[in-house]
Amino acid sequence: MDWWVSMPKVELHAHLNGSIRNSTLLELARDLGEKGTIVFSDFEHVIRKSDRSLREVFKLFDLIHIVTTDHKTITRITKEVVEDFAAENVVYLELRTTPKRNDSIGMSKRSYMEAVVEGLRSASSSLDINFASDDPERSSARTKKKIYVRLLLSIDRRESTAAAMETVNLALEMRDMGVIGIDLSGNPTIGEWETFFPALKFAREQGLSITLHCGEVPNPVEIQAMLDFLPGRIGHACCFQDEEWKKLRLSKIPVEICLTSNIRTETISSMDVHHFAELYKAKHPIVLCTDDSGVFSTNLSNEYALASNTFGLGRAELFELAKRAVDFIYAGKRIKMELIELFESAARTLE
Ligand code: 6MZ
């Protein structure tokens, strides 16, 4: 396991609130329980349950949002999540989150995102973090772990076109704060592609990168429409049929693969039938990711170890896979070059 931790890694599919530490989640829930806002024992039971269907996961997210969504907590969670990824040698992280509006506590989508950015700033006390500049200047802080962090704003599938557009406009306003793209996520059984399409199209026209949760449930019409849109990457690609595989393979759209998440949510019935193997064999662009490291009790090193054990891949092969992920990041050329250098230097020192 230590080797997988030491290896530099790139994380491109991590939801902020899904990556919350279990200890933090329980602490926040206990506090709210004491205030009488929630019944802690009910909450604890749901948090501690380890196997949840996809439907139950979305119920859990609604609970998580009750305890996490105030500015101070969002700042704390962001700081902790970035620290956790850096601690396991994730050197580049694209962290995604859904900007939330909650009038009762004076929260707008913008103030939610400012709380996230504040969390990145406060992580700099323990990390050498770059989140807003494209200039990969070397810092003198050699003792601190170095991590590049960029933000993707998620559109939740429950949202209207207008709300999705608000998120895109916010992303455009926050480009100098490390926001580089848009994600479409949320319960895949809810919402229509047509609702999000105008906002996604506009986002792309304005130069934002796009990633879509695609094929978490069987929905051939939507999958085809999403692939036709040619997003920069897609997440999951679990419920594809022959036609969709063909289209995906031709398109060469990189796929963010979340092994533990897919098994836990029963989106894929078992690891031996996971599409990782086929995509890997076909040399289709893929990247291993965590999805929700807190909710699924995993981390990126664990996902690499799992891929190694399940698919019989060695260290060298998985090191190459991690390095190739640099090609699919949404940050610019200079950061890519810096990361490649970092991987090459790690290859010389890691045995
Ligand atoms: C689809 C997911 C997801 O945005 O509050 N999310 N959407 N499929 C998944 N696979 C299991 N895991 C997480 O993080 C939590 C939100 O991310 C999306 C859901 O909308 C969830 O509410 P943020 O930081």
TrEMBL record:
It comes from the Eukaryota. This is Uncharacterized protein. It comes from Arctium lappa (Greater burdock).
